[in-house]
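SAMPLE LOG
Freezer: B-3
Tube label: C17
Construct: single chain, 409 aa
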Amino acid sequence: MHGYHASYRLIDLADGSCRDVPLKPAVLQKYIGGVGLGVWLLLKESRGNYDALAPEAPLVFAFAPLVGSALNTSAKAAVLSKSPLTHRLNDAMLSSGFALAGKASGADAIVVKGACREWSTLFVEPSGTTLRPTPELEGLSAAETETRLHEEWGEEWNVISIGPAGENGIPFALMSHDGRHAGRGGTGTVMGAKKLKAVAVKGGRPTTVADSSALAEIQARLQKNSLGAATEKYRTTGTLGNLLVFNRLNILPTLNFRGKSTEEAQGLSAEHLFREKKVHRATCADCMIGCEKRVTGRDGKPVRMEYENIFALGSLLGIWDADLVLEASQLCDQLGWTPSPWGARWPSPWSASSGVCWICPTSASATARFSSTPFAKPRPGRTTGSCWRWGRGPSPNGWGAAARPSPRR
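STRUCTURE (predicted):
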């Protein structure tokens, strides 16, 4: 079949074994797209009601039939697992070169089961897979991990990896490649439970199409529409442009969903950021829209900002200082967790009784800076994961320390 390699790669991390499993045309026609195929594979490779973090729990990277074709906006990988956060099906989408290289490695999906004995990196290419111990990468952010692997093994590898949050079992940890994330639901947590620090892919197997001329015509129309009026907002302000619209409609998540439309939202708006900050436009792999906006923070480093970061770390918490939100977003990237579940876990960053901000407990000022110290340096004897895994703020035992709730099955 065109658009497919008609097989998926099944890898057991316990012994490093790998085999290519054929996919029947009937399955590929019935379960279309990365998510569709990924859900089918997740169910096929799991048995009964399993723990999301158990070694036998499958982790699926799936690639749709158009990935690797000439069609723009198709470079998306679907990452699927059982969620350790909700205990239900979880899928996340990642738009980056990882999808292109993963498909070019010669498989329609990569399915990982088992667990490594020590922190390791999985290398996948058309000739097969190699599992290499990489304990020296433990504790690094995803960006640092990617840099280290490129330095040692070459720039041709596309690396998706986890940060400290995934290593320590925080249930909303994500995985990242080139600053783009497959988050929500704890995809990075599942990867961390397998002691799999990173997956590196490369390949040269093309995606074939049945009618290249017809695809070229569709691509020309898509290119025209991508640069037309329908996408103008996203080309100019990105998803940040939604903030004031939602605020005007009184649906902007504010003060843990207790607040209403407010003039303070102006301080987080795209219009304000574009006026007061340096903003760089970036595009996803094989996309010309360029809705990604990277805003320069106080430290001079660009931070990828989306509507999701702004509402989850800003308006939802009642924080209207753009610099604080940029700092918090940068912290999420460094530790490797998803902004929206993190923001939603806090009733409010301000103590109702004392007026003290427990995000940065040394200050009661609304202009207090986010401090990474409570997150990255917990009290002696407590790891980052044990402090933040199930907590909702400060507790007598440490930042966010709390008893683990009984899993809902």
